[in-house]
TrEMBL record, chain A:
Record-linked InterPro entries: AAA+_ATPase, ABC_transporter-like_ATP-bd, ABC_transporter-like_CS, Oligopep_ABC_C, P-loop_NTPase, PhnK
UniProt keyword list: ATP-binding, Nucleotide-binding, Transport
Record-level Gene Ontology MF annotations: ATP binding; ATP hydrolysis activity
Name recorded for this polypeptide: Putative phosphonate transport system ATP-binding protein
Membrane-topology annotation of the record: Peripheral membrane protein
TrEMBL record, chain B:
Residue intervals passing through the bilayer: none
Protein known as: Alpha-D-ribose 1-methylphosphonate 5-triphosphate synthase subunit PhnL
Alphabetized Pfam families for the sequence: ABC_tran
One GO CC term on file: plasma membrane
Amino acid sequence: MMPDDEPILSARGLSLSFGAVRALDEVSVDLWPGEVLAIVGESGSGKSTLLRALAGEMRPDAGRVAYRDASGQDLDVHSMGEPALRRLARTEWGFVRQDARDGLRMGVSAGGNVGERLMAVGARHYGDIRAEAARWLERVEINPDRIDDRPGQFSGGMRQRLQIARTLVTRPRLVFMDEPTGGLDVSVQARLLDLIRGLVSDLGIAVALVTHDIAAARLLAHRLVVMRHGRVVEEGLTDRVLDDPRHPYTQLLVSSVLAA
Amino acid sequence: MTEWVLKAEGLSKGFTLHLQGGVCIPVLRDAGLVVKAGECVALSGPSGAGKSTLMRLLQGNYGADSGAILVRQADGGVADLATASPRAINALRRETIGHVSQFLRVIPRVPALEVVAAPLIARGMPREEALARAQALLRRLNLPDRLHGLPPATFSGGEQQRVNLARGFVADFPLMLLDEPTASLDAANREVVIALIAEAKARGAALVGIFHDLEVRERVADRVVEVAPLREAA
Ligand SMILES: Nc1ncnc2c1ncn2[C@@H]1O[C@H](COP(=O)(O)OP(=O)(O)OP(=O)(O)O)[C@@H](O)[C@H]1O
Ligand SMILES: Nc1ncnc2c1ncn2[C@@H]1O[C@H](COP(=O)(O)OP(=O)(O)OP(=O)(O)O)[C@@H](O)[C@H]1O
Ligand SMILES: [Mg+2]
Ligand SMILES: [Mg+2]
């Protein structure tokens, strides 16, 4: 079988409760190489919890997450152990947080933020690291002259672009994004989405994207998962779920958006 | 070359509107359509009969309640769009099914030339070659060169539609779906579209179209298939 015919990430029967709240209720999802999967749903439906469970940051009460690594080996995300998980997060994975301050090191320069990820995968030559960091700043439309500035001196949109550069510089195979455009102006969002769209298709990375923004999901995602009360209520081809929604909740979600 | 490319049978489609108290709108019942290589079939019928719904089913944009939509791919393999997985549908759209919608869905910040070249790049054509082909087709559709590098968001309706047409015709899809392709075009560009359809037929493509312009329909369609409205609404 061709490797691309198998999912890179595969979750089965994930359940997770916080006291009486069932944040995840028997959730199963697959993600294939190079595919963008959008996870949408109302606030509190379990999207972020799902993403964290997929990335091994939160242990489910039940269920399993399998990741097929670059060498073709199947790994159980929740039993591989902290060091192995941390190595994956550093090398083959990336995570873009809603609040850039959670994904960046605020006390380190822009160039340092990008360079640090390169060093984590073994880059040692200072000049090369700096040059690559400058190239990535340019790629995310930040003037490389700002390479020595700290992220605190950047606007919200710039910070988010810096976080994307920091995440993608090592060319991960799988990236988790939780509301990457949340809290930004609409015009800034459009620019960021376009940037993500271009980079994701150029680099061919698999992305699990949590978003409130139906238009963003339509623009970026090959497939869509709709969550409600910790469950997946509908999933499928992005444009079909949005144009021919079956579940009452999906119909409500789609009808409340203007011409997505 | 008289083999069918598209064979749809027993198609039923209705909509259940949960926000309107669960009312059901049946639109198609036991609809079918066979289109051979080199043939162009026009769908006709009154407004609301379900022509666009059928077209969307053929594109995978709507899901059929029952029936089969068999599509013969360039390699001879046959896929059933009615039961295909999302990934299989994406692959069919990349390789087999071309589509010109009534209106262009603009992507922020992406220039017209890139919009048109995208289907070729997705199929693995080198970028330069894809852009050159896209440019030639945009020129043929009389879109001024100065617009090629701009995102179509600010273009006029007719300019946007020509970008949309170029995107649909730039690759040699075995099956082409055209929903009102000439609606917002002037006479000169309408002629270009008629020629593009003739060329697609000549290379062996199967085409399905909705043409409200009767003169265009007359000139491009080999057959007209009537989509009849369902009488008894639930
Ligand atoms: N660490 C936690 N402790 C207790 N409850 C939690 C915790 N994390 C999440 N929850 C609860 O689990 C449910 C799902 O939360 P989650 O953050 O996954 O929602 P979400 O879909 O991401 O929502 P939003 O769109 O608002 O970000 C919520 O009811 C939330 O209050
Ligand atoms: N996504 C949808 N949800 C609910 N109803 C729909 C949807 N799409 C189409 N319909 C309904 O299906 C019926 C057929 O519509 P369709 O657009 O296919 O007609 P048509 O033959 O293309 O008409 P026209 O010539 O006016 O374009 C209409 O009653 C329409 O309201
Ligand atoms: Mg969240
Ligand atoms: Mg119509």
